[in-house]
Each structure stands twice: as C-alpha cells, then as structure tokens.
Write a structure and sequence with these properties.
This protein is mainly alpha-helical and about 190 residues long. It has one domain: Arp2/3 complex 21 kDa subunit ARPC3. The protein contains 7 helices and 2 strands. The longest helix is centred in the C-terminal third of the chain and has 34 residues. The chain starts with 5 loop residues before the first helix and ends with a helix.
Length: about 190
C-alpha cells in the first residue's frame, strides 16, 4: 500500500521537505543579500526572493512557503540590513508569498488541474501582486515613509517599479516551474 508523504497530505512536513526548505531558505538569503536597490531610499528593490518563496509554496505547500519566505527575509535582514530598521510586517508579507502560491497549487491539485503549471504560476503571481506587493507598500510607508509623503503619492511612485520587478520574478518562475517539477519528481 502506497502512502503519501506528510508534505503532500498537509499533515506536517516530511524530513525531505524540511531539507528542501533549508536549501530554499539559503537561496532566499542569497536573494535578499544581493537585492539591487533602485532609486532613492530602500523602497524599490529588485530581488529574486519572490521566486524562491513561490517555489517553496508551489512545490512544498503553504506552510513550507511561509517558513521559507519569513525565515529568508528575517535572516536576510540580519546579514544585510541595508540601512533600514527591521520591519516584522515585511517578514510576514514575505511569508505570505509562499502561502499564496501554496494555496493556489493545493486548490488546483484538489480539483485535478495541477498539470496547468504556467496558468497556476500566473494566477499565483496575480494574487501575490494584489495582496503581498500592496501590503508591503503599506508596511513600508507606515514604517519608513510616513510624514515624508502622502500615502497615495508614495504608492504612485512605488507601484510602477514594483510591477516591473514582479514581472521579472514571474518570468523567472514560468521558466523554472516545469523543469523543477521534473527534477523534484513531485
């Protein structure tokens, strides 16, 4: 009788999943450490941490995605604080990236559409932009920019660049999702 691993049943994380999460946290640290800041201040940054968090959630579930996103962001700040104070809201938002992709892929699995990898990736990234990028903007504004600009002025300045960074991460995930599925044999 074949039994499914805990990562696939949602009842916990298997040892194999925990090991993959450790590797993905290390990749998230690298992505956060080598973030490229564009413009004035630290509010616009090109980072591939979205890609790493997405991969964790999509292939190993929402819990693994949250762990990779939150740990990668928190530890990334410890290694490379980039001049800003620690913002716990951004850590939670980074974790949500993995949760969202994990939930989208779990729902697709339950309805039998898990083979539509590109479509699921795009759907995940739409939700990630609408929820995470906007929550991140709110968190950054109230933590760092409040009093310097009005919120809507800050939002209008930050959002166009974030759309470009989001699109770059989306393309990376579209390129990686099929080969990673074959490599991981999931």
């Amino acid at each position: 009788m074949k039994t499914e691993s805990p990562a696939k049943t949602g009842k916990g994380l298997s040892i194999k999943t925990i090991c993959y999460c450790a590797v993905l946290v290390a990749l998230a640290l690298v992505a956060n450490t080598y973030t490229v800041y564009i413009g004035i201040g630290n509010s616009n940054a090109l980072s591939f941490s979205y890609t790493v968090c997405f991969i964790a959630g999509a292939f190993f579930g929402p819990l693994a995605g949250f762990i990779v996103g939150a740990c990668g962001d928190a530890l990334g700040w410890v290694i490379n604080p980039s001049g800003g104070a620690f913002n716990p809201a951004i850590v939670v938002v980074s974790g949500l990236i993995g949760v969202i992709s994990g939930v989208v892929f779990l729902i697709a699995k339950k309805i039998g559409k898990q083979d539509k990898l590109i479509a699921l990736t795009v759907i995940s990234f739409i939700f990630i932009f609408l929820i995470c990028t906007n929550l991140n903007t709110v968190a950054m504004y109230f933590y760092y920019m409040s009093g310097k600009y009005s919120f809507w002025a800050y939002y209008a300045i930050r959002t166009p660049k974030q759309i470009i960074f989001w699109a770059i991460n989306l393309v990376c995930c579209i390129v990686l999702v099929k080969p990673l599925k074959k490599l991981l044999k999931l």
